[in-house]
């Protein structure tokens, strides 16, 4: 069986998806309720693709569950077509492998045993990104003795697959030690690549118009250039998070031309919006790095088109409406993104003619999985898989819980309708949070269903397309 390849995947058009005789198939419908015993899905005329993978997600659990928690955050991911997400370490306490929660367990232990301890099954898979420094304070590198036992290969359901101090850049004083840890355990450093002490929005005409302190592009390019130098000098794998500036993309482009071990992501909002949208969206469009100029937005689109951008991450960052009501000056940075990412990218990248739908799936699924070292099974692989033996052409037979019996990659799929038009209504999000600049936006492209490990975990398909066991 072939694992994913970044260059040769093509969208599949599916007829029926025959789901396994799973004991706990569960379906989150549009009301957020779960129902069991889904047997078969009629996906005719829709696009079947590998489930999306997000390498940059904040679910706020533990520590800030008024904003989001594991249940609502993973429901939002499933509704957004994601099968796998990477949890950032800025939990409270920080996910550094050492800091303890009130009950004495570390955040890594808490997240590893979350489903067992809470007696539930979450709809998407997740892996962990350990903090680069103790308590994310930027003073001392985190101790590998505290987390290296959770690397892949030790039998954990939610292994540590990357190292980061998100949402802070790794500090100059700790970079050498953090990079040495990353190399020793073959982990990529995911760097936030944004450092500034002051400022609320991008420096420019808009910041002056709003009377707010501006954040210059150099706050990003300084960290990017520093990290590229580190990658060149030491061979450390560096992944630059949510790159947003013309200079940042250009630096990454040059590093790649020299063959350095550097990858980067950008986020849907840097592709769809610019700082002019602050005038319309206010604090709902406040994030870090800030929405940049219209020229930077264009540079982000060009960097996707020419392959400088390796992948797209949401940086899903839930906040309460009360916090966002503090206004542009005082509201916290960040927006939610899991439930709008596919449609926003489909509109600005595919419907605009910039890239193909298949290439977008590579950016939103295959490349992030590669970064995390967590391979996915492709739809076309299913046709030759043993689980598919004896099936009629056009039918896919999925197998339950394959990892436990075969050790093979999970069958995580998404069913998409690239032409469906819809209007973003945050009150219908599965996320606990509503902080999005896309409220009311008319988008095209809808996630219709998400299949995790052969089980339907989310669907907004019409009832006639979802066949439950009772109705057979
Ligand atoms: Zn982040």
Task: Provide a brief overview of the structure.
By secondary structure, the protein is of the alpha/beta class. It has 16 helices and 21 strands. Helix 7 runs parallel beside helix 8 and helix 8 (about 245-255) runs parallel beside helix 11.
3D architecture notes:
Catalyzes the reversible cyclization of carbamoyl aspartate to dihydroorotate. One of its GO terms (cellular component) is cytoplasm. Belongs to the metallo-dependent hydrolases superfamily. DHOase family. Class I DHOase subfamily. Its cofactor is Zn(2+). There is one protein chain. The protein has a domain at 52-376: Metal-dependent hydrolases (TIM Barrel, Alpha-Beta Barrel). The protein has an eight-stranded parallel β-sheet. A five-stranded antiparallel β-sheet has the order 1-6-18-19-20, covered by helices on one side. The longest helix has 17 residues, at 218-234. It is of the alpha/beta class and 472 residues long. It is built from 16 helices and 21 strands. Strand 10 (160-164), helix 5 (172-184) and strand 11 form a beta-alpha-beta unit. The structure holds zinc ion. Zinc ion binds next to loops.
């Amino acid at each position: 069986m072939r694992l994913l390849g970044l260059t040769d995947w093509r969208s599949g058009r599916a007829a029926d998806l025959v789901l396994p005789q799973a004991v706990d198939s569960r379906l989150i419908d549009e009301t957020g309720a779960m129902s069991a015993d889904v047997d078969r899905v009629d996906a005719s005329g829709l696009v079947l693709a590998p489930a999306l993978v997000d390498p940059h997600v904040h679910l706020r659990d533990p520590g800030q569950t008024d904003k989001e928690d594991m249940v609502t955050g993973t429901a939002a991911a499933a509704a957004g077509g994601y099968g796998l997400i990477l949890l950032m370490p800025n939990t409270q306490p920080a996910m550094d492998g050492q800091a303890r929660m009130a009950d004495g367990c570390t955040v890594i232990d808490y997240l590893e045993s979350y489903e067992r301890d809470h007696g539930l099954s979450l709809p998407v898979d997740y892996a962990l990104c350990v903090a680069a420094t103790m308590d994310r304070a930027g003073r001392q590198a985190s101790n590998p003795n505290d987390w290296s036992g959770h690397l892949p290969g030790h039998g954990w359901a939610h292994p540590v697959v990357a190292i980061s101090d998100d949402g802070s850049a790794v500090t100059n004083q700790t970079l050498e030690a953090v990079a040495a840890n990353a190399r020793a355990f073959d982990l990529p450093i995911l760097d936030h690549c944004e450092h500034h002490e002051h400022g609320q929005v991008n420096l420019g005409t808009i910041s002056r118009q709003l009377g707010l302190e501006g954040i210059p592009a150099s706050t990003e390019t300084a960290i990017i250039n520093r990290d590229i130098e580190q990658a060149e000098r030491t061979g450390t794998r560096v992944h630059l998070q949510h790159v947003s500036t013309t200079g940042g993309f250009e630096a990454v482009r040059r590093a790649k031309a020299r063959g350095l071990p550097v990858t980067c992501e950008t986020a849907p909002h840097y592709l769809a919006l610019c700082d002019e949208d602050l005038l319309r969206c206010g604090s709902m469009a406040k994030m870090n790095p800030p929405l940049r100029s219209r020229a930077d937005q264009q540079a982000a689109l060009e960097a996707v088109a020419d392959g400088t951008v390796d992948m797209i991450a949401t940086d899903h960052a839930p906040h309460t409406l009360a916090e966002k009501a503090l206004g542009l000056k005082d509201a916290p940075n960040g927006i939610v993104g899991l439930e709008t990412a596919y449609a926003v990218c489909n509109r600005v990248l595919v419907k605009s003619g910039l890239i193909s739908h298949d290439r977008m799936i590579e950016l939103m699924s295959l490349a992030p999985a590669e970064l995390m070292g967590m391979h996915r099974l492709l739809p076309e692989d299913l046709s030759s898989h043993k689980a598919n033996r004896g099936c009629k052409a056009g039918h896919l037979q999925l197998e339950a819980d394959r990892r436990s019996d075969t050790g093979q990659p999970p069958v995580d799929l998404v069913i998409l309708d690239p032409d469906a038009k819809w209007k973003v209504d945050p009150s219908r999000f599965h996320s606990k949070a509503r902080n999005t600049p896309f409220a009311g936006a008319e988008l095209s492209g809808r996630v219709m269903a998400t299949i995790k490990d052969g089980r339907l975990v989310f669907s907004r398909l019409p009832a006639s397309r979802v066949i439950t066991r009772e109705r057979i």
